[in-house]
Amino acid sequence: MAKGTNVQADLMKQKGILKWIETVGNKLPHPFVLFIILCGVLMVVSAILAAMDFSVIHPAKGEEVAVKSLLSVEGIHWILTSMLKNFIEFPALGLVLAMTLGIGLAEKIGLLTTVLRKMMAGIPASVVSYVVVFVGILGNLASDAAMVIIPPLGGLVFLAMGRHPIAGFAAGMAGVSSGFTANFFIAGTDALLAGISTEVAKTIDPNAMVTPVDNWFFMSASVVILAFFGGWITDKMIEPRLGTYHGDRNVQFEEVTPQENKALRKAGIAALIFVVIVGVLVVPEGSLLRDPKTGDFLTSPFLKGIIPIILLFFVTVSFVYGRAMGLIKTSKDIPQYMSEAIKDMSGFIVLAFTAAQFIAFFNWSNIGILMAVNGAEFMTHMGLTGLPIIIAFTLFTGVCSLFITSGSALWAILAPVFMPMLMLLDYNPAFIQAAYRIADSATNTISPVNPYIPLILAFYQKYNKNAGMGTIFSTMTPFAIVFLVVWILQLTLWYYLDLPFGPGVYAR
């Protein structure tokens, strides 16, 4: 990178709201300690709110939900008896460690590096950011597994091209997380949200029905739109702030050797055979990995077991490649490589312990539900009409999703409040659902209760030992804001041009 560009990057890093976010955020204690402090604050707040008898009626269940004090006898007993359970059942823990066994094996034997070198030979440097974001968006079809696979690969791609690896990681994470609900394909999320929407919509119209394809056209267009803006943000905003990478980690961008090409071909054949076998077990009606009761694909054991399947895929192709390269000679070699990969995740495991407690404390105390329901009641009394109330609803959802990371759980809370109100204004329930989905996705990357924060920070610190929470939020904030704004503009365009959101589905 030219000297002038370095000077420009240094100047950019010294000013602006993003630099302020990074500076303030990184002055906070180490995230391990920070989550302990947050747990203490949450305990005090829950005790105060419980003493004031704060409660709400859960819109979906019709039951009273009261704030529970973490400092009560019940709360203290729960903390002591659930601490290990909170850690063991932490959503990201098992997934990340299981995927690390497979991906780590592929990385340690050099398969990932070789594949990336092969890929990069055919991808122009000018479009790589857009490709990483695009792949990230499509990759969310694999749900949480994509978070473990695509952002780190994005970092390696950038590193191989002499660019800053954190920028590549951020591009991949933006696609996977902030673009989570967009895709060319119908995913489990479409079916899950449609089920909730249909159930609530029937309270107004007994014949109402929201299907998994009702947002398909809108979300398919979103893939291309968000990939463009995500790539632009990476090139014009994120990487200039990061400057030139001067770390000791690198990926040699050398020509693939004949032996590596031969090993790749064998690994490719193994991958093809694996995919064909899985296809035979999934595609035909009544096949082994279909839903045994309904024969449906969206609720199939295949999608529910996607993590083990991906793990087996990586182990299979890595084993074939390693054997061809002479790197795997005995049965001891595979667990040895896997052990080395797990060692690299030690920081994540330590941080995950306190992060798991904070998220569990937050959920058990019911504070998140209290915030969402009271906020929704305030929204219903604002008196807005027309498109402005849809936009206000979207912005409110974006705030709520910062504290309730489960999209289906948040929709189960908000839908019973907003769906009837907006349907009475003659809005299609599928349109209301689309307005919810864009906000719930866009702010994923800056949620303080995101279960993948320990993983994200562990990756950042591979390339920047001084990285902290501020580094994460300052890097991802531009993606969250721009994605949300662009998505709202797209929603507005679809509304005024009366474009279909899905087959035969319009805003009104």
TrEMBL record:
Q: Listed GO molecular functions?
A: secondary active p-aminobenzoyl-glutamate transmembrane transporter activity
Name used for this protein in its record: AbgT family transporter
Looking up Pfam families in the UniProt record yields:
ABG_transport
Q: Which is a GO BP term held by this UniProt record? A: p-aminobenzoyl-glutamate transmembrane transport
**Source organism's superkingdom?**
Bacteria
The residue ranges crossing the membrane are 32-53, 90-107, 119-139, 145-162, 169-196, 216-234, 267-286, 306-324, 345-367, 387-414, 472-497
Keywords from UniProt, A to Z, are:
Membrane, Transmembrane, Transmembrane helix
Question: What InterPro entries does its record include?
Answer: AbgT
